[in-house]
Inverse folding.
């Protein structure tokens, strides 16, 4: 009889790509409110849709402990399932709130027109005395900074009983910040483009609001026709390792954990975080995230045997990377315990994750997560392998540094060509 670890490795070796989970030529990210805001490594809505339809019933409660931009919650709501999401990032909470709470189109039309009309009252001289901000001033030219400050102030004039409208317009403004800044447009990493001519904030805002209004109306009428507008749906700013979700209250977890040392969400969302005063110190903000360079401890030991083998290989290459990956696996073990706590007996945990390579060592995160779930007394129900035909994440790393790069780099290597869907039962 195979031991559990050998069994897991064998299962992953034998898995063929499942065509029904690849969703070729499907652009589900453009449906409903999914396309409100750019977000790295965005969760494919069709995966969530299929998992909901395959594994849940109308009365079930769905949770996402890495809610990100709210894909799981949007799909849960349109399917009439109660849902709750958790994310450590306040920018994620803002985007998700805008996406899961469609506004009556007549009301949105009225307020959108008022806001657009207010742009005519902009007087640059009135904003010349705006205080300096080291990071904002680094990313924005003065003329763009002043217009954004005006837009932000106009949105904040909405009263506290108009929070949904405020979230909608703040989400719209957030999504244009990168276009209106000196940020290199093609880069997910913070990088200045010295040749860039940023977009005028007022023009960009008008286009963004028009696009979002169209999607809002579609989502609103879809939910209204199905009598689902009042379906419970919430997003909390909390740590996935220690949530306030009640024990044994969730029927199904559908989530996509962060990739190990892959995306620095704090860095990527810093423009919004600084403008909306979510943060004052980026370095401190970084430390709250799982799967980041900055949440570093000194451990190189993990409870996962497969994970420990990966860490031992990394220790021979680079001590810091080994510590980062150990920290990541240990954090994800804590998340696994939390999933076990909140799930009802017989409930399912569905994790979508891909593998990568760091320092020429294969980081088999999917295998590690499968092992962690088994260690926590979950039963593996299915492991699905899917190719990613429409890439929503960068696919090229430098083999030596482990950083994202371009194919023109002689050390470049394709990563994340496939990902896994792990389905486990409590």
């Amino acid at each position: 009889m195979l031991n559990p670890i050998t069994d897991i490795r064998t299962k992953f070796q034998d898995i063929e790509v499942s065509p029904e989970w690849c969703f070729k030529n499907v652009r589900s990210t453009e449906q409903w409110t999914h396309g409100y805001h750019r977000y790295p490594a965005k969760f494919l809505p069709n995966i969530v849709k299929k998992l909901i339809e395959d594994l849940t019933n109308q009365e079930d409660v769905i949770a996402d402990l890495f809610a990100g931009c709210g894909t799981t919650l949007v799909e849960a709501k349109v399917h009439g399932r109660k849902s709750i999401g958790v994310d450590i990032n306040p920018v994620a909470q803002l985007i998700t709130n805008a996406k899961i709470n469609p506004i009556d189109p007549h009301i949105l039309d009225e307020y959108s027109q008022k806001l657009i009309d207010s742009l005519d009252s902009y007087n640059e001289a009135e904003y010349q005395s705006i205080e300096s901000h080291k990071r904002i001033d680094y990313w924005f030219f003065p003329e763009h900074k002043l217009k954004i400050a005006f837009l932000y102030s106009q949105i904040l004039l909405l009263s506290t009983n108009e929070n949904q409208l405020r979230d909608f317009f703040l989400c719209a403004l957030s999504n244009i910040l990168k276009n209106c800044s000196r940020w290199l447009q093609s880069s997910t990493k913070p990088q200045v483009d010295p040749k860039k001519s940023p977009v005028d904030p007022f023009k960009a805002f008008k286009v963004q609001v028009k696009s979002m209004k169209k999607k809002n109306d579609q989502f609103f009428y879809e939910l209204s026709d199905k009598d689902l507008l009042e379906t419970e749906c919430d997003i909390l700013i909390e740590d996935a390792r220690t949530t306030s979700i009640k024990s044994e209250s969730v029927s199904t977890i559908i989530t996509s954990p962060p990739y190990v040392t892959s995306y620095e969400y704090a860095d990527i969302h810093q423009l919004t975080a600084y403008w909306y005063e979510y943060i004052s110190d980026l370095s401190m903000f970084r430390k709250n995230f799982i799967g980041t360079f900055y949440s570093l401890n000194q451990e190189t030991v993990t409870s996962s045997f497969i994970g420990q083998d990966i860490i031992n290989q990394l220790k021979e290459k680079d001590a810091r990377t080994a510590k980062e990956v150990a920290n990541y696996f240990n954090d994800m073990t804590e998340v696994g315990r939390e999933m076990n706590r909140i799930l009802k007996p017989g409930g399912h945990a569905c994790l979508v994750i891909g593998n990568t390579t760091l320092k020429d060592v294969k980081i088999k995160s999917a295998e590690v997560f499968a092992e962690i779930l088994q260690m926590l007394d979950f039963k593996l129900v299915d492991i699905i392998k899917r190719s990613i035909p429409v890439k929503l994440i960068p696919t090229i790393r430098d083999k030596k540094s482990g950083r994202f790069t371009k194919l023109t780099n002689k050390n470049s290597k394709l990563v994340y060509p496939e990902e896994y869907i792990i389905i486990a039962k409590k």
In short: The chain has two domains: 1-85+233-269+291-426, 103-228. Residues 182 and 420 are 36 Å apart (CA to CA). The longest strand covers residues 343-353.
